[in-house]
Amino acid sequence: MTTYKFARATLAVALLRLIVLTLDAAHVAHSFVPSTSSSYIRIKGTTSSSTTTTLHIFGGLKDAFSNDDSLGKAKDAGLSSGPRYNDQVTVNGKPISKVVVDQRVSQVCNAARVKVPYNCQNGECGTCTVKMNGKKVRACVAKVPSGKCAIQTL
């Protein structure tokens, strides 16, 4: 039991030393500001005063995230007029509505419920080749253009 009390006392002393060293380092780095409030401790007829210190670590950052009024009113993030749609897209003769310009052809084929085989998803293997406006393209990397677009599977 005495070993346990000795270990607790040793730990308490080590923690106090760590606190003192931390406060010394803070004092050297001038990162603390003594407060003006003092407290008086009265012990058996004697009076002593103590001054507390307050660490102001984030005091310099309090205005860093405030709003800058000189920038004007905040605008909505994202697309200002929404996505551009292409309603002139057909897959195997079936018209597809609400296709977004620059959307991948593979996604358009999936929306039309047309199976297109895939393998690499990089456009390297050629498994997903389809005809778009008469030209052979890889569906996994090709994008839908604006204007008329006729996609045919092979």
TrEMBL record:
GO molecular function, one term: 2 iron, 2 sulfur cluster binding
Keyword terms, alphabetized: 2Fe-2S, Iron, Iron-sulfur, Metal-binding, Signal
Top-level taxon in the UniProt lineage: Eukaryota
Residue ranges of domain 2Fe-2S ferredoxin-type in the record: 87-154
Signal peptide: 1-25
Keyword Cell division in record: no
Protein name: 2Fe-2S ferredoxin-type domain-containing protein
Organism expressing this protein natively: Cyclostephanos tholiformis
Phylogenetic classification of the source organism: Eukaryota, Sar, Stramenopiles, Ochrophyta, Bacillariophyta
